[in-house]
Specification:
Blueprint (H helix, E strand, L loop, with lengths): L1 H16 L5 E4 L6 E4 L1 H15 L9 H12 L20 H11 L6 H22 L3 H11 L2 H4 L3 H18 L3 H12 L9 H5 L7 H17 L1 H8 L3 H6 L13 H18 L8 H20 L14 H10 L5 H23 L11
Antiparallel strand pairs: 1-2
């Protein structure tokens, strides 16, 4: 717990000494200034240090990935894609296996798999936040709390896929469709569930208006209540998921404080729906972020009673960072400052609450 508190204290101090997250460098004549990205880069590097240096007990799957790395390193290329012995180390995510195999030529230490996976994930999310956010402290602590940081310590392979999908979305906003598709396909080679990210690509073709938002909200609510039949139908085509997930061991009553977060997200979505000028095509990105926020809610709520489904919501968690960013832009300056500071403080408190759970009790690898 102490290490997470230290991270928040360090980031808050850094934000203060860099003039709210930005360092201004003036020319000798004083005619112009240049803003560097010192705060955001240092904050994300600090988050990487914690993630990369975590021990086997931080995250339920960390030790498992190290074990698989050792197994994959022993496979021969002529039997590599069939899994070698009893297909024990074979998955359909061949990109991740190739990544492990190449790394094994340089080291047999499984900690380097954790470190390099963390590098890819953190760098991708850093680019995502840098591209779309202005209020840097709010964005960073939102990333820590609801932006997929903590879950990524558990589902490492999927976190790399999330990072690659975030890069795809950056190219999507630049209308670089081929690059977008390539990034998503690359993500699918690390985790097959990345295929769901083709849905945000399709949002570009849907008109942004209040009627569409209302229909999306109804669909998200219906899915969160009765979507288990749809999920059971989908996973029957993926035997490994059908045997592992969907046993319904969890219940909505176990959500506890997360209910407050769901309510706040829904409130921000409603506020944006009624305050955004949808006649302005530049606001279509806000529409996309809102729909992704609804997708997160629907999947996360249903996931409380459908074992394993909540892992799918990790692909939509980075959009919550943008959702909170856009949520304060409709207010006057004074109220806007209060909003962003309130979000930052709330995210810090919830982050500490989430990180106090058993699976995130921090122990470094050494």
């Amino acid at each position: 717990m102490t290490v997470y508190v230290s991270l928040l204290v360090w980031v808050s101090f850094l934000w203060a000494v860099t003039q709210c997250g930005r360092v201004y460098v003036c020319s000798g004549t004083g005619k112009y200034h240049f803003r560097t990205n010192l705060f955001l880069a240092t904050a994300f590097f600090s988050a990487f240090l914690l993630m990369g240096a975590r021990g086997d007990t931080v995250g339920k799957d960390t030790a498992v990935y190290k074990g698989y790395f050792s197994g994959v390193s022993q496979l021969k290329w002529n039997t590599f894609f069939t899994g070698g012995w009893d297909q024990q180390f074979c998955t359909t995510e061949k990109g991740f296996m190739v990544f492990e195999k190449i790394l094994s030529y340089f080291t047999q230490n499984g900690q380097w798999l954790i470190i390099l996976s963390s590098v890819i994930y953190i760098c991708c999310i850093y680019c995502f936040v840098k591209q779309f956010n202005i209020h840097l402290l709010t964005a960073f602590v939102s990333f820590l709390c609801v932006g997929s940081y903590l879950p990524s310590m558990n589902v490492m392979r999927q976190s790399v896929a999330v990072g690659l999908c975030c890069m795809a979305w950056i190219h999507l906003q630049k209308k670089q469709i081929r690059r977008t598709v390539l990034w998503i396909l690359a993500a699918c080679t690390f985790h097959r569930s990345s295929v769901i990210f083709f849905a945000p690509v399709l949002l570009k073709k849907i008109p942004a208006n209040r009627k569409t938002i209302l229909l999306a909200a109804i669909a998200a609510a219906a899915f969160s209540i009765g979507g288990s039949r749809i999920v059971y139908w989908v996973i029957k085509f993926i035997p490994v998921y059908a045997g592992r997930y969907g046993r319904g061991r969890w219940d909505i009553t176990s959500a506890n404080g997360i209910l407050i977060l769901w309510f706040i997200i829904a409130l921000v979505i409603a506020e944006l729906a009624f305050t955004t000028d949808w006649r302005n095509n530049e606001n279509h990105i806000i529409f996309e972020v809102m729909i992704c926020g609804m997708a997160y809610l629907g999947i996360n709520i249903l996931g409380q009673s459908f074992d394993g489904l909540d892992r799918l919501s990790i692909f939509f968690q980075p959009f919550l960072i943008l959702l909170f960013e856009y949520g304060g832009r409709c207010f006057e300056q004074k109220i806007s400052r209060m909003y962003y500071m309130g979000v930052a403080v709330s995210m810090m408190m919830l982050f500490l609450r989430l990180s106090s759970t058993e699976q995130y009790q921090y122990i470094p690898f050494w």
